Amino acid sequence: MTARVHVQAELLPAIERLEACIRSHGPMVVACSGGVDSALLAVVAHRVLEGRILCVLGVSASLASADHRDAIMFFQRHGLPFVAMPTREMDDPRYRANASDRCFFCKHELFERIESLPEARVFPVLAYGANADDRFDHRPGARAAGAHRACAPLAEAGFTKELVRAAARQLGLSQWDKPASPCLASRVPYHSEVTASKLGQIEAAEAALKQFGFDVCRVRHFGAVARIEVPVELMSRLKNADLWTAVSAAVRAAGFDAVELDERGFKSGRLNEALPRLA
Length: 279
Description:
This protein is of the alpha/beta class and 279 residues long. The protein is 41% helix and 12% strand. The chain has 11 helices and 7 strands. It has helices spanning 12-25, 36-48, 65-77, 93-97, 102-116, 141-147, 153-156, 161-170, 196-211, 235-238, 241-252, and strands at residues 28-31, 53-59, 82-86, 125-128, 218-222, 225-229, 258-261. It is globular and about 55 Å long.
């Protein structure tokens, strides 16, 4: 029997569902970015399966260096066995073309590389951190997961994003309130080529914004123009003339000729709004 951690009574049934789901799959390799979803999956699986897991972090130009560093610290803090594995989605012209199925080629590369990893071959199951809410969003990566028979225990156990965060908080994971941090390529409008140069500009510009205290932000790459998104409640602060001058200068220093503020405010996945709606 594995040791039970203390959780609030209202969360206990959900945690037990997740534990049962993980137990039914058995020893697994977990594709883990260090975000709250895959972090929760990894920590619970490590406890339930008594350490018979391996976390794999895919490392490429689309992973911000801060997220790379935070993921490694998370693995070390929780004693999770892990491998940081280079991925090569940037070598695939279909990925770089940045059509609406870009994420399929990224996830396909990740899962294929994991399956060829010597350390991972001893595990019969490949798992990743999709949650129950993801089915309502544009998620081409789910197709790749199906092609590679990757399971999603959080989704199977009915864990919504809200429930993931609540459980992560109860289990003491520092990511419980961490803003979502999708790959840097998600800031490039569809059908505009993804390049290492663009990703580097985005990373530098967002790092600059965070230095000014805007921890939740996006910098969308519209060629020579950087379009900034911050939460609506922080826009008045950003519009302060002195601060805006400093912020726009820092963003231009990342390689942009001009800086715009999106008056609609921050919205994760905003570029998906340009995609045709599913019936």
